[in-house]
Amino acid sequence: MEKKNVAKSVRAKLLNIRDSVPGTEYLQILLRYIQERMLYRLSMSQYRDNFCLKGSALLFAYEKFKARPTKDIDFLGDKISRDKETIRKAFREICAIQCPEDGLMFDNGENDIKVEDISLDKEYNGVTVTVTAHLDTIVQPFSMDIGFGDIVVPEPQELDYPLLLDDMPEVSINAYSLETVVAEKFQTMIDRALANSRMKDFYDVYSILSSESARVKVNEETLSEAIASVFSNRGTTYTENHPLFNGEFKNDPIKQTQWNAFLKKMKYKGVLPLNEVIDYITEKLSPYWLSLKK
Questions:
Q1: CB-based burial of residue 29 (10 Å sphere; 0-12 exposed, 13-18 middle, 19+ buried)?
Q2: Most buried residue, 130, 144, 216, 241, by CB count within 10 Å?
């Protein structure tokens, strides 16, 4: 099949997926597909061991469309310089990898890939990489956030990433464990306290800890090790009467407004009060928090 026809066929198949998943917009499906195929190209490149998948794109591997929609991919950079030109060179090579079966093309010219310092509202320092994907007549920019310096406990694991279309080449990448995801987001909750407006972290941690999916299993011993490692590496220590645990955060009108706005933006179906989410998180994580007490 000609490349143009492949792209049209893929586009139609993605529309069929949109129609089969109630409440899902086509852009969400498209971005998931672009992210998946970018991960494929990364997995086929010499840089596959330099970028470890984390964030919502990782959670999609476990919960599919139950996971929070996301417009970007989050990575931890490992054994690679954070120098912008080094990162640009890496993604030019990654984007140049061809995969005729998926119908996608990524711009990879010298001036096509933007690398900028990560914005201040992110949970870590690093860079944002912006590239443009092409599928048939669709032109879709998307971004990847790359952090540096974190220690991953346990070590990154090989993950078979789920395919939206079964007839595509498989994707196998290095990824965070769920325990590390929870540990890093928990540290951010503690560190930012009442200044924290990252409602997605609360949603993600609640989703992981409350999931009934057989794929989403959090090992208590591993989580304890991950939390201790992340808090130590980021210089965060135990404090008495923290707002997350004393009720101040969950009862703050500003936080409740931010939470409701977050749910509305992600088009959450149903009712999920902030106080219930915080109560659940603190009940589950309180033993780990107290274990940090000197």
A1: buried
A2: 144
Task: Report the distance separating Cα 177 and Cα 76, nearest Å.
Answer: 12
The per-residue pLDDT for range 206-227, each reduced to its tens digit, is 999 998 776 788 999 999 999 9
- The answer to whether 182 and 203 have CB atoms below 8 angstroms apart is no
* Rounded Cα–Cα distance for residues 289 and 68 (Å): 26
Q: What is the dihedral of CA 80, 84, 87, 88, to 10 degrees?
A: -160
Burial 176-192, CB ≥16 within 10 A → b, else e: bbbbbbbbbbbbbbbee
Q: Which of 18-22, 42-46, 156-160 has the lowest mean pLDDT?
A: 18-22
pTM to 2 decimal places: 0.89
| Separation of alpha carbons 227 and 178, rounded Å | 12
Segment holding 127, helix H or strand E: strand 126-135
Find the mean pLDDT for residues 104-124.
83
